[in-house]
């Protein structure tokens, strides 16, 4: 059997859509399908998903992708060796062990309803906002799962009662889907992986297990938490009733960690994924690096039960592509996301306009939950093209803020040697990529396949079942094959002035959360 006759499937469950991609043994996609699902906004700052709708979206994507691959002549049914899973991180839900029913909608990672809980904990705990950083690498923030779980425990009666009855299961989306895929109420496996667990605020980065002291301080019962496994190992088999029953689920990573693997980032290499938000990770190898400049310390990946753990510094940007969606859906300035590039190209600059998309506060490196979106520098000269360009620039500015913090934490990286690997849907926008290169002052490399998140999940599963070896995945020639490179052309003086103006605009977004409606 040749490499092309072996297939690996990847479930890519994102913030706004689910995909299933089938790869052959040379890591070439041969079939895929994607569906969007509903976003719920019950109140300002709240974002929820229907967990059952997500399960259904996976079923549809798997069936449709298989149909497409089969129509192209690929015998996927008999030769699918494993399935990998990647997912939106931090998004939190609790469900009934006995009925399988969610006890509340999933609270999405960008949801800001836990701000009051964060403030309370910062006052109550001796270490304030950084109280748990030594164990988990994360500050107290509405971003992370532990705070969302506390909100559910304090505000949802069904969750309180299920915990008292020992009938509650907690999980992020990976845990929920694996439990469903492996049988649900009929013996479903309650597990998560080290990368997703590292985003809950509950896992100890050194032991890779739930931190007992953190659980005690927060009052979270250990029995509702899933077992933690590595990113590349056979977790269990798909249950009857699903397509590919009996096929092993052999890889699981949070989406940004999967993108790191898909981009084959070795120690010292960084990638930026542009989706709803933007997420920049720098592989620090087996060293746990504490940030002094507003970044998060997290797991990169652990590629097997006995494998060494690679760690990372991460900067998370809450609103990136979501700002373009806002221009399209809420403002009506564009009718499709791809139109923003054409509109922004009508002007040579943003005309002094700066847009700070702090819709639910600012994440790294600022960490200002009191910030709200602002658009400043508007004059009678300003057109919608200037605003469109300012929105694109805001994505690049925020990524650059994180990269600057990474350089401060890790030591200055010479620009002639530094490359930023990029991926995600927004990277098809050539103007955005050129703006990013100009503001970073370093080359930006876009791979031929920009959907590296799904590829990373496939790589993890393929590693676990012997389809690929690490040497193949991390081969530099494979990484650079057919890549597009964007090189900076902006003068250093202009770059410095624009960064100063951006920082001024960011400060204007502070202390606006209590504006009267």
TrEMBL record:
Start and end residues of each Carbohydrate kinase FGGY C-terminal domain: 271-464
Pfam families, alphabetized: FGGY_C (PF02782), FGGY_N (PF00370)
Keyword list, A-Z: ATP-binding, Glycerol metabolism, Kinase, Nucleotide-binding, Transferase
Superkingdom as given in the UniProt entry: Eukaryota
Catalytic activity: glycerol + ATP = sn-glycerol 3-phosphate + ADP + H(+)
Family annotation (SUPFAM superfamilies): Actin-like ATPase domain
UniProt similarity note: Belongs to the FGGY kinase family.
Listed name of the protein: glycerol kinase
Organism: Lupinus luteus (European yellow lupine)
């Amino acid at each position: 059997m040749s490499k092309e006759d072996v297939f690996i499937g990847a479930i890519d469950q994102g913030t706004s859509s689910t995909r299933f991609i089938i790869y052959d043994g040379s890591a070439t996609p041969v079939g895929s399908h994607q569906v969007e699902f509903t976003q719920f906004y019950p109140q300002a700052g709240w974002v929820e998903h229907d967990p059952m709708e997500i399960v259904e979206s996976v079923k549809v994507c798997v069936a449709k992708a298989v149909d497409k691959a089969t129509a192209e002549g690929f015998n996927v049914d008999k030769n699918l060796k494993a399935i990998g899973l990647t997912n939106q991180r931090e998004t939190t839900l609790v469900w009934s062990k006995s009925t399988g029913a969610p006890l509340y909608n999933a609270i999405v990672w960008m949801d800001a309803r836990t701000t009051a809980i964060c403030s309370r904990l910062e006052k109550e705990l001796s270490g304030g906002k950084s109280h748990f950083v030594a164990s988990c690498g994360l500050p107290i923030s509405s971003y992370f799962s532990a705070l969302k779980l506390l909100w559910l425990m304090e505000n949802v009666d069904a969750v309180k009662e299920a915990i008292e009855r020992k009938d509650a299961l907690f999980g992020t989306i990976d845990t929920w889907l694996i439990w469903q895929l492996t049988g649900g109420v009929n013996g479903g496996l309650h597990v998560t992986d080290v990368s997703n667990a590292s985003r809950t605020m509950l896992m100890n980065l050194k032991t890779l297990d739930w931190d007992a002291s953190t659980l005690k301080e927060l009052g979270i019962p250990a029995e509702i938490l899933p077992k933690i496994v590595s990113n590349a190992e056979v977790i269990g088999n798909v249950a009857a009733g699903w397509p590919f029953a009996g096929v092993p689920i052999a890889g699981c990573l949070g989406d940004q960690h999967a993108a790191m693997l898909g981009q084959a980032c070795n120690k010292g290499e960084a990638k930026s994924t542009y989706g709803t938000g933007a997420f920049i990770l720098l592989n620090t190898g087996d060293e746990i690096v504490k940030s002094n400049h507003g970044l998060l310390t997290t797991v990169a990946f652990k590629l097997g039960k006995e494998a060494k753990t690679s760690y990372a510094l991460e900067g998370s940007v809450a609103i990136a592509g979501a700002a373009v969606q806002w221009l399209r859906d809420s403002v009506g300035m564009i009718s499709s996301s791809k139109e923003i590039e054409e509109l922004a190209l009508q002007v040579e600059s943003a005309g002094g306009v700066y847009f700070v998309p702090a819709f639910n506060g600012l994440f790294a490196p600022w960490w200002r939950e009191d910030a709200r979106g602002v658009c400043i520098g508007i004059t009678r000269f300003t057109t919608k093209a200037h605003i469109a360009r300012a929105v694109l620039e805001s994505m690049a500015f925020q990524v650059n803020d994180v990269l600057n913090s990474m350089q401060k934490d890790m030591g200055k990286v010479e620009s002639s040697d530094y490359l930023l690997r990029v991926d995600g849907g927004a990277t098809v926008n050539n103007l955005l990529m050129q703006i990013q290169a100009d503001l970073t002052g370093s080359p930006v490399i876009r791979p031929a396949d920009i959907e590296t998140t799904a590829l990373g999940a496939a790589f993890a599963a393929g590693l676990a079942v012997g389809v690929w070896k690490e040497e193949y995945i991390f081969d530099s020639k494979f990484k650079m094959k057919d890549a597009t490179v964007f090189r900076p052309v902006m003068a250093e003086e202009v770059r410095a002035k624009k960064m100063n103006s951006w920082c001024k605009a960011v400060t204007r977004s502070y202390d606006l959360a209590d504006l009267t409606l």
